[in-house]
């Protein structure tokens, strides 16, 4: 078995093999893009090939930017298209590709990789931990009224309109085909401040790669503009024959913009319910409904998984909101590595150096990936029996240190 890098000439066989691994057939290429594989970077792909030259496994990576706590932007490899033909599973092909890929990422100088897991039991053994989550919120149209904000009413502020009618903005309805540049610009502004968000490179938009609204699939788009007419949010949606309005994604630069867009789609005529496909954890929309039970949460699931390739670099890259010191004893079973690190945080910056001091926490690299963006409290993993706290107060300090200013959330599909 050989694991080799791919070139542009391998695109067709790579795509065919990846589809066969999932018992599917490639879509027919269409003018205007819209194919997930049109954005593949073939210099970052891998093929597992038998001694007879038959391709039996695939793996690839995209070049992304990931937003960390503190609004820090760092490069991250987006692992994708990982699959092994059914005829060659449970023979070590996947492990060989994953080990080969991690070595290549390190050789490129990358210290983080991320992925979306097709199955939750696969990637933990390769050092990936679930780091963000997302949920679906369904609101019955006849119960969709938004309440008057009580804090505004108590302060004597007038009610009505988006965020009490005081944001001074407006909502314009456009077709997807007429607002591609607006979507790209607004998403880029949003992702630079949202922990856990991934960049969408221009070529993704140009090629229509991924899922709506990146693809040219017909959609209606509610575009919010601020008081100066500058776009600062959008909601991409469609209505099906069952009169369900489904919002692909809502992008907003602040809560007031999100509320304005939510008010717009919730007030849509001739629909029976409104489905928000991707709502971040702890989002206030349910609390804004007059009838709290009108909003039903479902599909609460993991989304972005994180893998640290260089623990000190990763920990010193992100921002921190609390001062303190922790000694982390980190095991990396898949790569056969172990390190003990003194994490010292002062004024939002961290140092991370080797140490012989007794550990405060002992954890697997996958668990460090889960807490890295601030979406999972270290104490949760202590209570689950995955992380060991060696002294009283260690878990609470870790919670304070790793906590982010806002929950991490990722909308990008890859």
UniProtKB/TrEMBL annotation:
The active site is at 123 (proton donor), 414 (proton acceptor). InterPro entries: Acetyltransf_17, Acetyltransferase_Eis, Acyl_CoA_acyltransferase, Eis_dom, GNAT_dom, NAcTrfase_Eis, SCP2_sterol-bd_dom_sf. Keywords: Acyltransferase, Transferase. It comes from the Bacteria. Residues 1-155 form the N-acetyltransferase domain. Transmembrane segments: none annotated. Homohexamer; trimer of dimers. This is GNAT family N-acetyltransferase. Acetyl-CoA binds at residues 82-84, 90-95, 118-119. Belongs to the acetyltransferase Eis family.
